[in-house]
Write a structure and sequence with these properties.
heterodimer; A: mainly alpha; 2 domains; two-stranded antiparallel sheet; 1% strand; globular; B: mainly alpha; 14 helices; 0% strand
C-alpha cells in the first residue's frame, strides 16, 4: 500500500530559504559549541584525546591565575561600564536642547571613535602612554607637577591605564542609544512636571531617569557581557602584565589555547566564562528588571 | 523632545547663552574623546624618523608624506593586506545580506515545521561568548579542513551570523502579513514575494546590516590572526599589529599605518552616517 506524503508547500519554501544560512550556522557555530563541551572533558591531542571528566574544570577553578583573571575582568568591568553609562547619559541629555542638525553633528562626532579598529586605537594609545618623559600622558603629569609614570608596565598603574583608555575611548553607541530613548519621552510628562513647579534636576531625576530605565538595563547588560569578553586591550597594550595584573579572562583563554596548546583547559575556562556571564545577566535582570516594561 | 529644558520665554537671551555654554562644553569633551584619532592622523604626516627622547609634542613639526611611503615600503605586502581585508569583508557582507536575510524572512513570515526550535537555537547561539567556539572552530578550520591561510578560512565562518538572522527576522516581522498573503493569492511564489515585495520595503535594515557586517569584518583582528600565518594572507589589522613590532620606535609610520587601516571606515562613515547611527538603535530598540 502506497502512502502519499503531502508535504506542505510552506514547509518546503521555509527550508529552502533557511538552507544556506543554517548549513553555515550548524557547521561553524553549533558544531563548535557542542565540540567545546566535549573538548573541555578531554585532554586534547591531535590524535587520540583522552577523556578526563571534570579534570579541566577542576584545574581551572583551582588555578590562582584563573581566579585572578576573573577578578581583573570584574574590576575592569565595574570601573568602566557604569561610568561610561553615566557619561553617556549626561552627554545625551546635553545634546537634547539643540536643533536636529546640531544634534546630528554631535552624534557623529561622539560616534566616530567607534569606527576605528581595536588595533589602530591600541597602537595610538601605546604612544600616548609612552613611558619616556616625553610621552603624552607624562607631559600632562609634568604640567601638573607629578612624577612621570611607567603607565603600562608598572603594577600600580597598568590596570588604571586600561580603564582610562576605555573611559576616554568614546561612548558612541551608548550615547546614540540614550538619545533615541530620550527622543521617545512624551513631552506631556514635562508639562505635568512644569505645572508641579519641578526644577530641571527634579525633572531629570524623577521623570527622565525612570523612563530611561529599560535602556539603562539594556546597556548595562550588554556592556557587562562585552566587557567580560574583552581581549584586545590587554593583548595589545600590556600583554596581561605586569605580573598578570591586567590578564583578563579572554586573554588567559587565548594564551592557554594558542600559546600553550591546552585546548581542553581553554574550553573549560570558556564554558565557565559563559556561565559567569549568564549568572551575571540573570542577577542584573533580577535587581533592575522589576517594574521595567518593554 | 520638548519640555525638559525651559525655553525661558520671558527672556530668550538666557536660553541662547545656556545653549552656547552647553555647546562649548560638548565640543571640548568631543575633542578629548576624539583626541587619539586626531593625534593619529596628525602624526601620520610626521617624518619617518626615530623619535628622540623629548622631541615630540601633540603635532609634528614637519608635515610630510614620507611616513606613508615608509608604511608601504617597509613590507611588500601592505597593499595585499588592504586587498585581503576588502575581499574578506565584502564577501562576508554580501553573503550575510543574501543568506541571513532569507533565513530571517523564513523565520518571520513562512510557517514551517521546526521553525521555532531552530530560531531558539539561533537565540541561544547569540548569547554564547565567542571564546567558547574559538578553539573548536580553530581545530575544525585549520587542523581538520586544512584551510589555514585561505580566503575560505577568513570568510566561511562569518557567512551568515546569528545576529544578522535575528536582526532581519525582527524587521521582517513588522511587515504586515496581509501584504504577503494577498501576493500569495495572486499566485506569486515565496521567492518572488521576497525579492519583489519584501526586499524593496527593507532597504534600510539591509543597508544597516551590510554596513555593520562590513565594518566588523574590516576591523576584526582575532580570527584572521588565528588562521593566517603567511604574511601574504594577513588582513590589514593583523599586518598593522606585526608592523608594530618591526618599527616600535618610529611613531609616524605606525600612525600612517593606523590611519590607512581606519581611512576606509571613516570614508564609509561620513558618506553613510545615517545608516551607521541607525544601526546602533535598530539592535537596541528591537531587541
Amino acid at each position: 500500500m502506497k502512502k502519499h506524503f503531502h508535504v506542505k508547500r510552506e514547509t518546503v519554501d521555509g527550508y529552502l530559504f533557511i538552507l544556506a544560512a543554517m548549513v553555515i550556522f550548524l557547521v561553524f557555530t553549533i558544531y563548535p559549541m557542542v565540540s567545546a563541551v566535549t573538548t573541555s572533558l578531554k585532554d586534547y591531542r591531535p590524535f587520540g584525546s583522552e577523556w578526563v571528566g571534570a579534570a579541566n574544570y577542576k584545574a581551572a577553578v583551582g588555578n590562582a591565575l584563573f581566579l585572578k583573571s576573573v577578578k581583573n575582568t570584574l574590576v575592569y568591568t565595574v570601573a568602566t561600564v557604569p561610568v561610561s553609562l553615566a557619561i553617556s547619559f549626561i552627554v545625551a541629555l546635553l545634546i537634547m536642547p539643540f536643533k536636529r542638525k546640531t544634534q546630528s553633528l554631535f552624534k557623529a562626532l561622539y560616534y566616530m571613535p567607534a569606527v576605528a579598529s581595536g588595533v589602530a586605537t591600541s597602537v595610538v594609545w601605546l604612544w600616548i602612554y609612552n613611558s619616556a618623559p616625553s610621552g603624552l600622558f607624562n607631559q600632562i603629569m609634568s604640567i601638573l607637577h607629578l612624577p612621570a609614570q611607567n603607565w603600562l608596565s608598572s603594577s600600580r598603574t597598568a590596570m588604571l591605564s586600561l580603564i582610562i583608555m576605555s573611559l576616554l575611548g568614546g561612548h558612541g553607541t551608548h550615547i546614540i542609544t540614550y538619545i533615541a530613548a530620550l527622543m521617545g519621552i512624551d513631552s506631556s510628562y514635562f508639562e505635568a512636571a512644569d505645572i508641579d513647579g519641578a526644577s530641571f534636576f527634579q525633572k531629570v531625576w524623577y521623570v527622565v531617569l525612570p523612563l530611561c530605565k529599560p535602556t539603562t538595563l539594556f546597556l548595562l547588560v550588554t556592556g557587562f557581557i562585552n566587557s567580560f569578553q574583552v581581549f584586545m586591550n590587554a593583548y595589545m597594550m600590556t600583554g596581561g602584565g605586569p605580573d598578570n595584573n591586567t590578564t583578563m579572562i579572554g586573554l588567559l583563554i587565548f594564551n592557554n589555547a594558542f600559546v600553550y596548546g591546552k585546548y581542553g583547559l581553554a574550553c573549560a575556562e570558556a564554558i565557565i566564562l559563559a556561565c559567569l556571564i549568564a549568572c551575571m545577566t540573570a542577577v542584573q535582570f533580577r535587581v533592575m528588571g522589576d517594574n521595567v516594561e518593554y | 523632545m520638548r519640555g525638559l529644558y525651559s525655553l525661558h520665554l520671558h527672556n530668550p537671551v538666557i536660553c541662547r547663552i545656556r545653549n552656547a555654554l552647553i555647546g562649548i562644553f560638548l565640543l571640548l569633551f568631543a575633542a578629548v574623546i576624539l583626541f587619539p584619532m586626531i593625534y593619529m592622523v596628525a602624526w601620520s604626516f610626521g617624518p619617518d624618523r626615530e623619535m628622540a627622547a623629548n622631541s615630540y609634542s601633540i603635532f609634528p613639526g614637519i608635515w610630510t608624506l614620507e611616513s606613508y611611503y615608509a608604511f608601504f615600503a617597509k613590507s611588500e605586502y601592505t597593499v595585499r593586506w588592504l586587498y585581503n581585508s576588502f575581499v574578506t569583508s565584502a564577501a562576508v557582507m554580501v553573503s550575510n545580506v543574501i543568506f541571513a536575510s532569507m533565513a530571517g524572512y523564513a523565520f518571520a513570515k513562512i510557517s514551517f515545521k521546526g521553525s521555532r526550535p531552530l530560531f531558539s537555537l539561533i537565540l541561544v547561539a547569540m548569547m554564547i561568548p565567542y571564546q567558547v567556539t574559538q578553539v573548536p572552530l580553530y581545530i575544525l578550520i585549520v587542523s581538520r579542513l586544512k584551510m589555514g591561510n585561505s580566503y575560505a578560512a577568513l570568510i566561511l565562518p562569518g557567512c551568515a551570523t546569528a545576529y544578522n538572522i535575528f536582526l532581519s527576522k525582527q524587521f521582517f516581522s513588522s511587515i504586515p502579513s496581509a501584504l504577503i498573503e494577498s501576493a500569495k493569492i495572486d499566485g506569486a511564489s515565496q521567492l518572488r514575494i521576497f525579492y519583489n515585495l519584501v526586499l524593496p520595503l527593507s532597504k534600510t535594515v539591509l543597508a544597516v546590516m551590510a554596513i555593520n557586517t562590513f565594518m566588523s569584518n574590516w576591523n576584526t583582528f582575532f580570527w584572521p590572526f588565528l588562521v593566517t600565518s603567511k604574511e601574504a594572507m594577513y588582513t590589514i589589522q593583523v599586518g598593522l599589529k606585526t608592523f608594530r613590532f618591526a618599527n616600535g620606535t618610529r611613531l609616524s609610520p605606525m600612525m600612517a599605518g593606523a590611519t590607512i587601516s581606519t581611512l576606509p571606515m571613516f570614508i564609509l562613515f561620513f558618506s553613510l552616517q545615517k545608516y551607521f547611527l541607525e544601526g546602533v538603535t535598530i539592535g537596541a530598540v528591537k531587541g
